[in-house]
Amino acid sequence: MRTPRRRVRGLGPAHSGTGHFWLQRTTAIANTGLVIYFVFLFATLVGRSHAAVVATIGQPLVAILLLAAIFSIVIHMRIGMQVIIEDYVHGEAAKITLLMANTFFAIAVGLAAAFAVLRISFGL
Amino acid sequence: MIEPKTHAERPLSPHLQIYRLTITMVMSIVHRATGAALYVGTILFVWWLFAAGNPRRFETINAFLGSWIGRLILFGYTWALLHHLLGGVRHLIWDTGRGMEPGEREFLAWATLIGSGTLTVLVWLLALMLRG
Protein backbone atom coordinates (compact mmCIF):
# COMPACT_ATOMS: atom_id res chain seq x y z
CA MET A 1 0.00 0.00 0.00
CA ARG A 2 1.33 3.39 -0.99
CA THR A 3 0.13 6.55 0.70
CA PRO A 4 1.00 10.21 0.09
CA ARG A 5 3.04 9.99 3.35
CA ARG A 6 5.98 8.55 1.42
CA ARG A 7 6.47 11.90 -0.24
CA VAL A 8 8.41 14.68 1.47
CA ARG A 9 6.16 17.58 2.35
CA GLY A 10 7.46 21.06 1.63
CA LEU A 11 11.17 21.34 2.31
CA GLY A 12 11.25 18.36 4.69
CA PRO A 13 11.91 18.17 8.44
CA ALA A 14 15.14 20.21 8.27
CA HIS A 15 13.30 23.00 6.37
CA SER A 16 16.14 23.43 3.89
CA GLY A 17 15.27 20.83 1.24
CA THR A 18 18.23 19.87 -0.94
CA GLY A 19 20.01 23.17 -0.21
CA HIS A 20 22.74 21.52 1.88
CA PHE A 21 23.29 18.81 -0.72
CA TRP A 22 23.68 21.30 -3.59
CA LEU A 23 25.89 23.68 -1.63
CA GLN A 24 28.09 20.73 -0.67
CA ARG A 25 28.38 19.59 -4.33
CA THR A 26 28.85 23.07 -5.78
CA THR A 27 31.66 23.93 -3.37
CA ALA A 28 33.13 20.43 -3.85
CA ILE A 29 33.38 20.95 -7.62
CA ALA A 30 34.77 24.47 -7.16
CA ASN A 31 37.27 23.11 -4.65
CA THR A 32 38.67 20.42 -6.99
CA GLY A 33 40.17 23.07 -9.28
CA LEU A 34 40.96 25.61 -6.59
CA VAL A 35 42.65 23.07 -4.30
CA ILE A 36 44.88 21.71 -7.08
CA TYR A 37 45.97 25.28 -7.76
CA PHE A 38 46.38 25.96 -4.06
CA VAL A 39 48.50 22.83 -3.44
CA PHE A 40 50.95 23.80 -6.19
CA LEU A 41 51.05 27.43 -5.09
CA PHE A 42 51.66 26.53 -1.46
CA ALA A 43 54.19 23.78 -2.25
CA THR A 44 56.27 26.16 -4.37
CA LEU A 45 55.95 29.09 -1.94
CA VAL A 46 56.55 27.44 1.42
CA GLY A 47 60.11 27.96 2.62
CA ARG A 48 60.71 30.82 0.16
CA SER A 49 61.79 34.27 1.32
CA HIS A 50 59.28 36.80 2.59
CA ALA A 51 59.82 39.08 -0.41
CA ALA A 52 59.20 36.26 -2.90
CA VAL A 53 56.01 35.10 -1.16
CA VAL A 54 54.60 38.63 -0.89
CA ALA A 55 55.42 39.33 -4.55
CA THR A 56 53.58 36.17 -5.69
CA ILE A 57 50.48 36.54 -3.49
CA GLY A 58 50.36 40.25 -4.37
CA GLN A 59 49.63 39.48 -8.04
CA PRO A 60 45.92 40.15 -8.73
CA LEU A 61 45.16 36.77 -10.33
CA VAL A 62 46.88 34.81 -7.54
CA ALA A 63 45.09 36.87 -4.88
CA ILE A 64 41.68 36.45 -6.56
CA LEU A 65 42.15 32.68 -6.91
CA LEU A 66 43.24 32.48 -3.26
CA LEU A 67 40.19 34.48 -2.15
CA ALA A 68 37.93 32.23 -4.25
CA ALA A 69 39.54 29.15 -2.67
CA ILE A 70 39.12 30.59 0.83
CA PHE A 71 35.44 31.42 0.16
CA SER A 72 34.59 28.00 -1.27
CA ILE A 73 36.67 26.01 1.25
CA VAL A 74 35.22 27.80 4.26
CA ILE A 75 31.62 27.11 3.16
CA HIS A 76 32.47 23.49 2.36
CA MET A 77 34.21 22.85 5.67
CA ARG A 78 31.42 24.51 7.64
CA ILE A 79 28.66 22.32 6.21
CA GLY A 80 30.93 19.27 6.38
CA MET A 81 31.62 19.77 10.09
CA GLN A 82 27.89 20.43 10.55
CA VAL A 83 27.18 16.87 9.35
CA ILE A 84 29.83 15.43 11.69
CA ILE A 85 28.30 17.29 14.65
CA GLU A 86 24.76 16.20 13.72
CA ASP A 87 25.96 12.59 13.43
CA TYR A 88 27.75 12.32 16.78
CA VAL A 89 26.30 14.95 19.14
CA HIS A 90 22.79 14.11 20.27
CA GLY A 91 22.19 16.42 23.25
CA GLU A 92 20.19 19.38 21.97
CA ALA A 93 22.10 22.06 23.95
CA ALA A 94 25.53 20.66 23.07
CA LYS A 95 24.53 20.25 19.43
CA ILE A 96 23.26 23.81 19.03
CA THR A 97 26.33 25.20 20.84
CA LEU A 98 28.72 23.24 18.61
CA LEU A 99 26.84 24.14 15.43
CA MET A 100 27.12 27.81 16.34
CA ALA A 101 30.80 27.46 17.28
CA ASN A 102 31.32 25.76 13.91
CA THR A 103 29.78 28.71 12.07
CA PHE A 104 31.84 31.20 14.09
CA PHE A 105 35.05 29.24 13.45
CA ALA A 106 34.39 29.06 9.70
CA ILE A 107 33.65 32.79 9.49
CA ALA A 108 36.71 33.66 11.61
CA VAL A 109 39.00 31.53 9.43
CA GLY A 110 37.49 32.98 6.24
CA LEU A 111 37.76 36.59 7.36
CA ALA A 112 41.28 36.22 8.77
CA ALA A 113 42.57 34.49 5.63
CA ALA A 114 40.86 36.99 3.30
CA PHE A 115 42.20 39.89 5.36
CA ALA A 116 45.74 38.51 5.22
CA VAL A 117 45.57 38.08 1.43
CA LEU A 118 44.12 41.56 0.85
CA ARG A 119 46.69 43.13 3.14
CA ILE A 120 49.45 41.61 1.00
CA SER A 121 47.66 42.61 -2.24
CA PHE A 122 47.34 46.22 -1.20
CA GLY A 123 50.91 46.29 0.07
CA LEU A 124 49.97 47.22 3.62
CA MET B 1 18.65 -25.60 36.88
CA ILE B 2 18.49 -25.22 33.16
CA GLU B 3 17.32 -21.97 31.64
CA PRO B 4 14.64 -22.49 29.03
CA LYS B 5 15.72 -21.52 25.56
CA THR B 6 13.70 -18.57 24.43
CA HIS B 7 15.45 -17.88 21.15
CA ALA B 8 17.11 -19.78 18.34
CA GLU B 9 20.92 -19.73 18.43
CA ARG B 10 21.54 -17.70 15.34
CA PRO B 11 24.27 -15.10 14.98
CA LEU B 12 23.07 -11.66 15.96
CA SER B 13 23.28 -8.76 13.56
CA PRO B 14 25.80 -7.29 12.71
CA HIS B 15 27.41 -10.75 12.96
CA LEU B 16 30.35 -9.62 15.05
CA GLN B 17 32.13 -12.98 14.84
CA ILE B 18 32.46 -12.68 11.06
CA TYR B 19 32.81 -8.88 11.00
CA ARG B 20 35.81 -7.48 9.19
CA LEU B 21 36.95 -4.15 7.86
CA THR B 22 36.57 -3.63 4.14
CA ILE B 23 38.52 -1.10 2.08
CA THR B 24 35.37 0.89 1.27
CA MET B 25 34.59 1.22 4.99
CA VAL B 26 38.13 2.36 5.75
CA MET B 27 38.08 4.92 2.92
CA SER B 28 34.72 6.25 4.14
CA ILE B 29 36.17 6.75 7.64
CA VAL B 30 39.40 8.25 6.25
CA HIS B 31 37.40 10.68 4.09
CA ARG B 32 35.63 12.03 7.16
CA ALA B 33 38.83 12.02 9.25
CA THR B 34 40.82 13.93 6.61
CA GLY B 35 37.93 16.40 6.29
CA ALA B 36 38.02 17.05 10.04
CA ALA B 37 41.83 17.30 10.02
CA LEU B 38 41.75 19.83 7.17
CA TYR B 39 39.18 21.84 9.12
CA VAL B 40 41.68 22.21 11.98
CA GLY B 41 44.56 22.57 9.51
CA THR B 42 43.14 25.85 8.17
CA ILE B 43 44.57 27.43 11.35
CA LEU B 44 48.09 26.60 10.12
CA PHE B 45 47.36 28.18 6.73
CA VAL B 46 45.91 31.35 8.29
CA TRP B 47 48.94 31.57 10.61
CA TRP B 48 51.31 31.36 7.63
CA LEU B 49 49.32 33.93 5.61
CA PHE B 50 49.16 36.30 8.56
CA ALA B 51 52.87 36.01 9.25
CA ALA B 52 53.50 37.27 5.70
CA GLY B 53 52.56 40.72 7.03
CA ASN B 54 55.81 40.87 8.99
CA PRO B 55 59.20 39.74 7.55
CA ARG B 56 60.67 38.78 10.94
CA ARG B 57 57.65 36.70 12.01
CA PHE B 58 57.68 35.12 8.57
CA GLU B 59 61.24 33.92 9.12
CA THR B 60 60.13 32.26 12.39
CA ILE B 61 57.33 30.29 10.72
CA ASN B 62 59.60 29.45 7.78
CA ALA B 63 62.16 27.99 10.16
CA PHE B 64 59.44 25.90 11.80
CA LEU B 65 58.02 24.67 8.47
CA GLY B 66 61.55 23.88 7.27
CA SER B 67 62.30 21.70 10.32
CA TRP B 68 61.64 17.96 10.11
CA ILE B 69 58.45 18.22 12.17
CA GLY B 70 57.24 21.12 10.02
CA ARG B 71 57.95 19.15 6.85
CA LEU B 72 56.13 16.14 8.28
CA ILE B 73 53.08 18.30 9.04
CA LEU B 74 53.15 19.82 5.53
CA PHE B 75 53.50 16.39 3.93
CA GLY B 76 50.58 15.07 6.02
CA TYR B 77 48.55 18.19 5.26
CA THR B 78 49.11 17.73 1.51
CA TRP B 79 48.18 14.06 1.71
CA ALA B 80 44.99 14.81 3.69
CA LEU B 81 44.04 17.48 1.15
CA LEU B 82 44.67 15.27 -1.88
CA HIS B 83 43.03 12.24 -0.27
CA HIS B 84 39.92 14.24 0.58
CA LEU B 85 39.96 15.67 -2.96
CA LEU B 86 40.11 12.24 -4.60
CA GLY B 87 37.57 10.84 -2.12
CA GLY B 88 35.30 13.73 -3.05
CA VAL B 89 35.67 12.98 -6.76
CA ARG B 90 34.73 9.37 -5.94
CA HIS B 91 31.55 10.65 -4.29
CA LEU B 92 30.81 12.86 -7.31
CA ILE B 93 31.14 9.77 -9.55
CA TRP B 94 28.70 7.94 -7.27
CA ASP B 95 26.31 10.91 -7.51
CA THR B 96 25.90 10.10 -11.21
CA GLY B 97 24.92 6.52 -10.28
CA ARG B 98 28.15 5.01 -11.62
CA GLY B 99 30.86 2.99 -9.87
CA MET B 100 28.68 1.29 -7.26
CA GLU B 101 28.90 -2.31 -8.49
CA PRO B 102 31.02 -4.85 -6.59
CA GLY B 103 34.59 -4.54 -7.82
CA GLU B 104 34.06 -0.95 -9.00
CA ARG B 105 33.65 0.23 -5.41
CA GLU B 106 36.83 -1.50 -4.32
CA PHE B 107 38.69 -0.21 -7.37
CA LEU B 108 37.66 3.39 -6.59
CA ALA B 109 38.61 2.97 -2.92
CA TRP B 110 42.09 1.67 -3.77
CA ALA B 111 42.50 4.32 -6.48
CA THR B 112 41.76 7.00 -3.86
CA LEU B 113 44.37 5.64 -1.48
CA ILE B 114 47.13 4.88 -3.99
CA GLY B 115 46.39 8.04 -5.99
CA SER B 116 46.60 10.35 -2.98
CA GLY B 117 49.90 8.82 -1.81
CA THR B 118 51.44 9.00 -5.29
CA LEU B 119 50.25 12.56 -5.94
CA THR B 120 51.55 13.77 -2.56
CA VAL B 121 55.04 12.42 -3.31
CA LEU B 122 54.90 13.89 -6.85
CA VAL B 123 53.79 17.33 -5.61
CA TRP B 124 56.69 17.55 -3.15
CA LEU B 125 59.24 16.18 -5.63
CA LEU B 126 58.08 18.78 -8.16
CA ALA B 127 58.12 21.53 -5.53
CA LEU B 128 61.68 20.64 -4.48
CA MET B 129 62.81 20.50 -8.13
CA LEU B 130 61.23 23.87 -8.97
CA ARG B 131 62.91 25.39 -5.96
CA GLY B 132 66.25 23.95 -7.09
Description:
The complex is a heterodimer of chains A (124) and B (132). Chain A has 124 residues and is mainly α. Chain A has a single domain (20-121), classed as Up-down Bundle (3 helical TM bundles of succinate and fumarate reductases). Chain A is 76% helix and 0% strand. In chain A, helix 1 packs across helix 3 and helix 3 runs antiparallel to helix 4 (92-121). The longest helix of chain A has 30 residues, at 92-121. Chain A is elongated and about 70 Å long. The model of chain A has no long low-confidence stretch (mean pLDDT 92). Chain B is an all-alpha fold and 132 residues long. Helix content of chain B is 73%, strand content 0%. Chain B has four helices and no strands. In chain B, helix 1 crosses helix 3 and helix 3 packs antiparallel against helix 4. Chain B has one domain (24-131): 3 helical TM bundles of succinate and fumarate reductases (Up-down Bundle), CATH 1.20.1300. The interface between A and B is medium-sized, with 34 and 36 residues.
For this entry, give a set of tags:
heterodimer, A: 124 residues, mainly alpha, 3 helical TM bundles of succinate and fumarate reductases, 4 helices, 0% strand, elongated, B: 132 residues
Please indicate the count of domains of chain B: 1
Number of helices of chain B: 4
CATH-defined topology of chain A: 3 helical TM bundles of succinate and fumarate reductases
- Per DSSP E runs of 2 or more residues, the count of β-strands of chain B stands at 0
CATH class of chain A: Mainly Alpha
CATH fold type of chain B = 3 helical TM bundles of succinate and fumarate reductases
Quaternary structure of the protein: heterodimer
Overview in brief:
The complex is a heterodimer of chains A (124) and B (132). Chain A is mostly helical. Chain A has a single domain (20-121), classed as 3 helical TM bundles of succinate and fumarate reductases, CATH 1.20.1300.10.
